[in-house]
Recover the amino acids of this structure.
């Protein structure tokens, strides 16, 4: 009887530990997989980390600017500057893990193209492009050109991105 009572107590203790561990993430920030790309991009723009006005692309041309097909992403939000600066915010939710490298490559190609353009008419902006943030976290790929990457990094981290 004593042994079964101890076994029952141990079982309940382990169950309690497992339940507490399962609830441990309840108050933490969203993971990258559950982030709303439109809200995240708007939050980044709202930080003031940009010297130029950022306007969200709502006419669907953003994918063609990046050379991406509709089926490579399930959602996206892209803010372009007025062209006086290369500042930009692009957040892509990839449609499958296989698309991560293709979308990342598209962001790198965009960066390279912008460097070539700005070298000739606004060389003072090239440093921003050379410091562009290109990354992948969960099902998100981002490309961000700003004057203040530390502020942008904080917003990314607050939203569960690495």
């Amino acid at each position: 009887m004593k042994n079964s009572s101890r076994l029952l107590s141990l079982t309940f203790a382990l169950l309690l530990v497992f339940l507490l561990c399962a609830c441990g993430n309840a108050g933490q920030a969203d993971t990258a997989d559950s982030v709303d790309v439109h809200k995240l991009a708007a939050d980044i723009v709202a930080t003031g980390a940009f010297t130029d006005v950022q306007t969200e692309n709502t006419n669907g041309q953003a994918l063609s600017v990046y050379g991406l097909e509709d089926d490579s992403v399930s959602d996206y939000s892209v803010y372009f500057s007025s062209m006086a600066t290369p500042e930009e915010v692009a957040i892509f939710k990839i449609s499958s893990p296989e698309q991560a490298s293709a979308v990342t490559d598209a962001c790198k190609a965009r960066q390279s193209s912008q460097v070539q353009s700005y070298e000739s008419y606004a060389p003072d902006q090239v440093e921003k492009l050379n410091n562009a943030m290109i990354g992948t976290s969960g099902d998100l790929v981002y490309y961000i050109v700003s004057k203040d990457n530390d502020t942008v990094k904080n917003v990314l981290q607050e939203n569960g991105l690495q």
